[in-house]
Design a protein that fits this description.
Order of helices and strands: EEEHHHHHHHEEEHEHEE
Helix content: 25-40%
Domain MPN: 161-283
Number of helices: 9
Distance between the termini: 28 Å
Strand content: 15-25%
Biased composition (Basic and acidic residues): 32-47
Organism: Rhizobium subbaraonis
GO molecular function, one term: metal ion binding
CATH topology of the largest domain: Cytidine Deaminase, domain 2
Structural class: alpha+beta
CATH architecture of the largest domain: 3-Layer(aba) Sandwich
Number of domains: 2
Protein name: DNA repair protein RadC
Length: 283
């Protein structure tokens, strides 16, 4: 028997550091930078007595060296509350781009992608469209984003998901809000509502993902899950559920109920926030 998909749609619109022989401690506040150790050195001019003096280019670079130290000191002494978003991003870029003034790059990233979350969530190809961001830096930024997502996900481990709802939303938002295609994600829970698995069941286009209710239920049975939470994103940014979202959710509920599987909620993630079908009393 063929499987008929029910579609999610929207009606109204979604280097590892080089390590020297002396070692590298990885500190953000270390003035030296391991990437520059093997970089080509700027030429130096010697005085009559043989003393070395900085070339004009090096002297010109000195204007941001003091700024970097001041910014590090502010973060060291007062924490993130003493820094604007562009300064936090600039502080991060110090390590990724050691020999350039990173303030204009940080500001350009925020102008392009709107927020820190938007910067870290942006695809590498789009990050590289910002002047000063190459492939290596784009991948470094995505690595940081992935570590952040894993950290948020770890907050759900061995906890009752329904009692850690804000952690669920934070994780799903970090993982999906800035995706440029729809994703349909499933959170499988055991009888104590503890997370068993978190899986992406399907990927689609900017406004459509095919969803197979029987496959959703089949996977829940394979994992011995007794409950599931449905999650998908709207790349348009608006999390408002469409009629297709509601109908698809009801179909999955009706398919799962006879087999003792509860659908706790369907969460829609957008850049502007999230919507809960249960909270909206749509299921």
């Amino acid at each position: 028997m063929g499987k008929n998909p029910v579609s999610i749609g929207e009606e109204n619109a979604a280097e590892e550091p080089l390590q020297t022989s002396s070692g590298y401690d990885g500190s953000l506040f270390n003035d030296g930078d391991e990437r520059g150790h093997f970089a080509e050195r700027s030429p130096r001019r010697e005085t009559i007595v043989g003393a070395q003096t900085p070339a004009p280019k090096e002297a010109a670079e000195a204007h941001y060296h003091g700024h970097r130290e001041r910014l590090r000191n502010r973060f060291r002494e007062h924490g993130e509350t003493a820094l604007a978003d562009y300064e936090l991003l600039e502080l991060l870029l110090f390590r990724l781009i050691p020999r350039r003034d990173t303030k204009p790059i940080a500001k350009a990233l925020l102008e392009r992608f709107g927020t820190l979350s938007g910067v870290l969530g942006a695809p590498p190809a789009l990050l590289q469209e910002v002047k000063g961001i190459g492939e290596a830096v784009a991948l470094d930024l995505k690595l940081i984003a992935t570590v952040s997502q894993r950290m948020l996900k770890s907050e759900l481990r061995n906890k009752q998901v329904l009692g850690s709802w804000s952690s669920v939303i934070s994780y799903c938002h970090a993982a999906m809000a800035h995706e440029n295609r729809e994703q349909f994600r499933l959170l499988f829970l055991d009888k104590r509502n503890v997370l068993i698995a978190d899986e992406i069941q399907g990927r689609g286009t900017v406004d459509h993902t095919p969803v197979y209710p029987r496959e959703v239920v089949k996977r829940a049975l394979e994992l011995s899950a007794t409950a599931i939470i449905l999650v998908h994103n709207h790349p348009s940014g608006d999390p408002t559920p469409s009629r297709a979202d509601i109908e698809m959710t009801k179909t999955i509920i009706d398919t799962a109920r006879p087999l003792g599987i509860t659908v706790h909620d369907h969460i829609i993630i957008g850049r502007e926030g999230h919507a809960s079908l249960k909270g909206l009393r749509l299921i």
